[in-house]
Amino acid sequence: MEKWVYGGAGLARTAEGVTLVPFVMPGEKVKLESARRRAGVMEARAAEIMEKSPDRIEPACAVFGRCGGCHYQMAPYGFQIDAKLAILREVLERVGRLKAPEEVRVVQGEPWGYRNRSQFHFGHHTLGYKMAGSEKVVDVAECPISAPAVNAALKALRAARRDRRFPRFLKQVELFTNGERTMVNVLDTEQGRGVSKGFFAWLAERIPGAADGEIFYEACGERFRVSHRSFFQVNRFLIGSLVECALEGAEGEEALDLYAGVGLFTIPLARRIARVTGVESDASAARDLEFNLAAAGVTAEARRMQAEQYLEGLTKRPDFVLADPPRAGLGKRVVKELIRLRPPRMNIVSCDPATLARDLAALCAAGYGMEGLVLIDLFPQTYHMETVARLRLG
Predict the structure, then answer these.
(1) Is 133 exposed, middle or buried (0-12, 13-18, 19+ CB in 10 A)?
(2) Is the pLDDT of residue 132 over 90?
């Protein structure tokens, strides 16, 4: 195996061409099986590791390698960090033709028990995560990357499922905790069947600290209402570090927070800058954003609309723009409008280095320079990473 690539697999060069193999370490010699071609590359599984890497360790989870939730448990945490940094540099150069700054700051936290939010699937007799590359559900009694409160709720949910009153049409649930209260969100059911309020009341009696419909999450000295359909960052140990990195260099009189969510960045930004507008298109998150801004007593404004629509109607140049787009990135319309407005400083928060590279390439071609780059490891044991790019108009 030559190296890890973005997506969690190891890359090997075989007679059939580039081959991607999950759950292997760089430098290992592996016997492959179940090879198939997809999207121009071969995918295979490791039937046998003939020569193990000296860095390989025992995974902490009994279902690692079958469960699709983690990718790197066989590697020491420092090895994971070094690999992610190399992958980030490689993707920026390959996709965006960009050279990362010589010094990329790395922020890391606890490698286990960090997830405050986890989604679990129901199989015929199983409850857990989907198998890697399959729709089958791997039974999970406890998840080592999830917070203790999530695991306590999972245990209670498994016990409740044995009760004849438990609805058998549930397909997927989400557990979200602030450490004291845990919210159960039903994400999917068979044929879209609804779940009664009585079920949640019945379930609340069985789950420690069950919350109904919303949770209040304290982070960075602020308090955020997070409703059951709203997004919130999942790493309970690094939320403060993420906010600090995202706001670094923020200055001026007027700022925008695009893809603002419930206001995790908007409120701290409004403590620094006089006029702040948070833009969020999701209805649930936008309601939470409005509530949280009012509760925090800041003068920031919430706008419920698409980021591109808001920017297209804007004529005055903001002094600072913070953007935390979904995995798809900013996209052409948002990038076009940012180039038109030309704010002196922008910070881009990204969970996908490929779409970040694409967006940065366009912004840098329009006169922006990358002033700093931070890799924040919000997702230990997985290939996922969070990145903050600080841009200044040249």
Answers:
(1) exposed
(2) no
Angle ∠(9,13,19) on CA atoms, nearest 5? 40
**Domain, as residue range, for 366:** 86-110+235-393
Q: How many residues comprise the chain?
A: 394
In a domain, 140, yes or no: yes
For position 310, which CATH number holds? 3.40.50.150
Please tell me the predicted confidence (pLDDT) of residue 16: 83
Say whether both 293 and 195 belong to one domain.
no
Same domain for 142 and 248: no
- Look at residue 102 in the predicted model and tell me its pLDDT: 94
Q: Which of 39-53, 196-210, 293-307 has the lowest mean pLDDT?
A: 196-210
106 and 22 both lie in a single domain: no
Are 252 and 349 part of one and the same domain?
yes
Q: Considering the domain boundaries, does residue 93 fall inside one?
A: yes
Say how far residue 237 (Cα) sits from the centre of its chain: 14
Q: What's the average model confidence in pLDDT over 69-91?
A: 98
On whether both 246 and 332 belong to a single domain, the answer is: yes
Q: Residue 99 gets which letter from DSSP? A: P
The model's confidence at residue 41, banded by pLDDT at 50, 70 and 90, is confident
Pairing relation of β-strands 275-280 and 254-258? parallel
Q: What is the DSSP letter of 141?
A: S
Rounded to an integer, what distance in angstroms lies between the CA atom of residue 145 and that of residue 248?
A: 29
Residue 198, pLDDT score: 84
**Number of domains, the chain:** 3
Which element (helix H / strand E) includes 239? Answer: helix 239-246
Write down the pLDDT at residue 90. Answer: 98
pTM, entire model: 0.94
